[in-house]
Every structure is written in C-alpha cells, then in structure tokens.
Amino acid sequence: MKRRGVTVLLxxxxxxxxxxxxxxxxxxYVALGPGPTVDxxxxxxxxxxxxxxxxxxxxxxxxxxxxxxDGQLRxxxxxxxxxxxxxxxxxxWISDDYAVVPREFQYPDDxxxxxxxxxxxxxxxxxxxxxxxxxxxxxxEEVSVxxxxxxxxSPSDEALVEGDVITAVAGEPVTSQEKLxxxxxxxxxxxxxxxxxxxxxxxxxxxxxxxTPEQHEDGSAVLPGVLVEPVQDDPYGLTVTTEGLNxxxxxxxxxxxxxxxxxxxAEDLTGGLVIAGTGxxxxxxxxxxxGGVAQKVVGAKADGATVFLxxxxxxxxxxxxxxxxxxxxxxxxxxxxxxxxxxxREGRTPATC
Length: 353
Known about the structure:
The protein has helices at residues 3-24, 86-94, 103-106, 113-138, 177-190, 253-263, 293-302, 315-319, 334-345; strands at residues 29-34, 38-39, 43-47, 53-57, 59-60, 72-75, 78-81, 99-102, 144-150, 165-169, 172-173, 196-202, 205-211, 214-215, 221-222, 226-231, 239-240, 274-277, 280-281, 287-288, 307-311, 327-331. It is of the alpha+beta class.
C-alpha cells in the first residue's frame, strides 16, 4: 500500500475512534420520557422486603359504601433517563416522545439524590391528603378550619379561643386551611400592619373578631400565636395505599381525588372508559399545571387511554405531542373533571384543549 493510502487509512481509523469516543462521553443532561401508568381504581402488585408478592388496592373504602367500576382512572408518570452518553442524548433529542434538559434541572447541585427523593415523597403524600379533602368536599363533606390553640399573651389572645371555627376573612369564605393562608396574605398585602376582620362560629353563635396577621418564617401569612387544623368528616373510610409504587411528586392529585369519589359513588364515573390524567390539586379542588405532560400523554395512550384529563395551563404543551386517538379534556377544577366525565357518559362533548 502506498504511503498516502496508509496515511488516509490511519486518519480514517483515528477519526472513527475519536468520533466513537466523543459519542460515548457522558453528558450533563437527562432525558424525560414516558413512564409507567397505574390504574387508581385497580389492584397492583409489588414485592415487599421479604421477597413476598403483595396485591394492594390503591384506593379503598368501607365495604358498605365501596363500589367497583368497569373503566379505569390511570395516573401517569415521567421516567428520568440519567447518566446518558452523547449518542443516546442525540437519539432522545430528535424523538418527539422525549425531552432533553440540563441535569441540574432535575438534580440541583445543592441537593443530594436522597434529599430530592424525600421532597418528592413528601409532595406525593401531600397530594393524597389534598385530594382526599377535595374529594370529600365534592361528596358534600365541608371543611371546618378550627382553632386548636392560642398562645397566652400573643396578639391573638382573647380575640380567638380554642374551638373557634374561622368561617370568613374580611367577608371572604374560608373553605380550607390553604384558603385561610391565601386570604390572610391578601389582607397583609392590601393593608400591611392592619387588623383583619374574622367571622367565627363559637359555641353555636356567630361572632366577629379582629387580629393583625403576621408573616411566618416560611413566608406564609398566619394569625400570630394561633394553631389551626382542618376538620372534615369522612363517613366513607377512604384509604390510600401506595407502598411499593415508587412514585413521587404532586401530579397525581387530580386522579387520586376522582378515584376516591368514584370508589364511593354507586355510578361508574368512568363510563367504562380508560381515562388517564394529571394535575396537582389543592384542598379546594383547584387543578394546577405540572411538568412532563408531553411525555405523559404518550405513556397514557400506550396503556390504552382514550381520554386524558389535562390541566388548562398544560393544554398547549399536551397538544404539541398528543397521540392519535387520545382526547385532551381541559380541566381547571375537580368539579370540571367530574362534569367532563358526566358528559362523556352521556355521549356529550366535554371542554377540550
């Protein structure tokens, strides 16, 4: 072989090796892709610490009120692909079903993976609690925001007493602990340092009192020296069991709430359909936007869903990647979602994205 040919061959080999090495390099990005979905009305299996396979219903209620549905309400997830090389990142980048984002967005440098996991687990638990409160309210069980203690010599001493139910702030109804904090924050912003009028149920009487709200160390607005808790009856014995699912975050709140209502309602709210959805929910039933919806619609369709309940603020993102055969239903509240399910059962068209 002539010297020039050898040089060209060696150059080609070297370029190939360098290219392969470059493509094999780990990148500071992660890919977000469709994750598994779970039927909140169904039974799932997991292997416990002893190696035994356990079967668990996600949502249960007392036998006297519990009902079964032919359809499904599937919560959806996003799978994070970490420690990827350049070649894999390029594949994810050109795929419509994945999003490639800087790794620090998912794993901030100032937090360990354990800390992030703990935060996700706490949000997961909070979403279940808020969902239960919202579901019970939809079932007719109102929340009483009740004073459990008042510190002596605090600015609230004598103005409030243990057992008071706070029904309104400056005339605006208090429907949850979250709503109380929101109304107090609005009052502080409107008239800093000024007292606010509170409507109270006290010993079967309606009274009015005034207290100046303060900012708590966590940034929230509070009544100084006062502890409150939401009191709500649960005549259904609703229970959520998620052990072994290995899911975190707040985005399953809407589906949790719908599954709880469905579980104790004689009518099959799904109408026999496979329905998926997402959205963070608060105690008043408001549905907020979440991340990864473009990937979640793909996972929903793959697991048989024909309807996807979509937070209104996520509609544009969901529409950009919606698979054929999946209808995006737009919801702002739990009541919206329930009304949309009713429309579907009756053959009507709900509000869509």
